[in-house]
């Protein structure tokens, strides 16, 4: 905030400056409250309830790095993977990744303030891969949410979506979803998911304690029901199926 005065008006007196010092404390509080209202009103635009249903770990935050929302899947990841931490609504990462993360947010904030966002500047989604000596790792993908038109219409600051991927704790596809979508039996759905995890038919047969011919017949049924012709097509299809948290 700043105060402008003219040559004719002259500089402010000590009494006036003292009054403004006291006033700024209250003005700052009002501005912060209003900013929070704008940020949290994005809930109706983004749809927190839908985000909570996704089994993909998602964290929403503003450009100051303050966490707005963490879905259930992300909370589960944070309990298992200690690389990323959230304390007092702020994200913390090991160096040098934390500095890199904060610099990217500052850059986006600068573009936003200069009104050069989206239309005049190409902003690519970012990815930070963090690996630690003990074997744990974490991928953090960042995407800017809310279009420039929506920001101008609703007065909302940009929201950043962080998508987390932990190779040691990947999200799983619901077997029921495969049944509803393609009418796969429970056995066929399990075979499809094992293929997605990289198991060969012979290993799947050993894992399920059945003959290899049984698995091959199940694969043919899966291909027919999913309108795919080979394993690579089936894997691509499964990778693009939306994943939702199962109801507890």
TrEMBL record:
Set out the biological process GO terms recorded for this chain's protein.
regulation of DNA-templated transcription
Q: Which SMART domains match?
A: HTH_LUXR
HTH luxR-type domain location, by residue? Answer: 181-238
Task: Report the InterPro entries cross-referenced here.
Answer: Sig_transdc_resp-reg_C-effctor (IPR016032), Tscrpt_reg_LuxR_C (IPR000792), WH-like_DNA-bd_sf (IPR036388)
Under the GO molecular function aspect, what terms does this record hold?
Answer: DNA binding
Write the protein's name. Answer: Helix-turn-helix transcriptional regulator
- Biological source species: Acinetobacter wuhouensis
